[in-house]
Amino acid sequence: MTVYDxxxxxxxxGGLPAAALAARLGATVALIEMHExxxx
Amino acid sequence: xxxxxxxxAEFGVRGVDPAALWLDLPAVVAxxxxxxxxIIDGIYGWVNPSPNVTLIRGRAEFTSPVDLRxxxxxxxxxxxxxxxxARTADIEIPGLVETGYLTNYEALQLQRVPxxxxxxxxxxxxxxxxxxxxxxxxxxxLLSRSSRIMKHEEPELSERLAGMLIAEGIDVRVGAEGIQAxxxxxxxxxxxxxxxxxxxxxxxxxxxxxxxxxxxxxxxxEEAGVKIDPEGVHVSDQLRTTAPNIWSLGDVNGGAMFTHRxxxxxxxxxxxxxxxxxxxxxxxAVPRAVFTEPALAxxxxxxxxxxxxxxxxxxxxxxxxxxxxxxxxxxxEGLIKLVADAVTxxxxxxxxxxxxxxxxxxxxxxxxxxxxxxxxxxRAIHIHPTLSxxxxxxxxxxx
Lengths: 40, 399
Prior knowledge:
The complex is a heterodimer.
Chain A: E1 3-9, H1 15-24, E2 29-33
Parallel strand pairs in A: 1-2
Chain B: H1 2-7, H2 25-44, E1 53-57, E2 60-62, E3 67-70, E4 73-82, E5 86-88, H3 96-99, H4 104-107, E6 116-120, H5 124-136, E7 139-143, H6 155-167, E8 171-173, E9 176-184, E10 187-194, E11 197-203, E12 205-208, E13 212-214, E14 228-229, E15 232-233, E16 246-248, H7 259-275, E17 288-290, E18 295-300, H8 303-308, E19 313-319, H9 324-329, E20 335-341, E21 347-354, H10 357-369, H11 374-379, H12 389-398
Parallel strand pairs in B: 4-16, 6-7, 6-12, 7-8
Antiparallel strand pairs in B: 2-3, 3-4, 5-13, 9-10, 10-11, 14-15, 17-18, 18-21, 19-20, 20-21
């Protein structure tokens, strides 16, 4: 089982910048998206 | 196309045969799809390729505050951020599901311009799509359940916009109650009580623009101890939910459901979740725009909202009929209304109906962000001849 520092649920235009910044700050991030990354 | 068809002669452009103009909708949709894909590819580049980000495709549900199941796979996360956005509101109009309808998603994929369209809902989506299809040549009926379109906006502006839509040939009906739908031959029929009288509207298609609601379905937030309010996920001003290690951002929290709000929330939630930064959101100046022509853009409070919030209020109004630039581009119908606290002078709101209102509003946004007064806008030198001068003019009237 993988343990992440952060799970971001939703890869839209809120989730993506959150995941990007967290990753840049050194956190391991699971970005979970059920449709297309990028949002609607 | 609208400008060419309606106003070419006024601008001295000869040789245009309005009757010969037609819209190649598949080409329009294909162009839109290319642009959208380019934007999506661009923002996906924010996380890809980052060695720290693992993309997991699937539907997530919480099984505890730190455990998630994603399509059967289990992952553990010390912190989580909910960023699931919003979806079209449930349909509560009798007969509409059986009759069939479009949402904004399907309406943007149409390959043929419908001959007639009933738009239910006169908020951002309803008003924009009503004008767009009207200009494509569709006979449009816009049904508003409220007593006016764009009900949250400054009445002087939303009523003027309604008048412009009517002048373009859109059948705008406000105060529609008891809306129902049914099939009518090959078309569709919508019934509504307007002014106490039931009226029937017939069209080829129906567009449901009745609002969006937070997308929390299936997340099993209760397993994680995350409380949901009627308007969305309950968060503190640091975007922390009722579960200490879970954060939430954007549309799913309710309030101002705009991409730019979610994009503002994103880094702040990440900093708080990963670094414990304790940053707080500042939503005093979240601008908004309805991308009609002219556009209606606003920020902060309307005059009535400012009064209700206990302010002594003063307003400053300017009209684009007084602008040389507006005359030159042939768009003189709009106005600007600024709202300020009469005691402190602090700007509380700005409301603009004009060409490029979505650009002009940012002067007001910037001033409000710094808790500024109209003074900084009024004293600053503005380029002549621009529409922006009218923001300065409204600020001058506010003094």
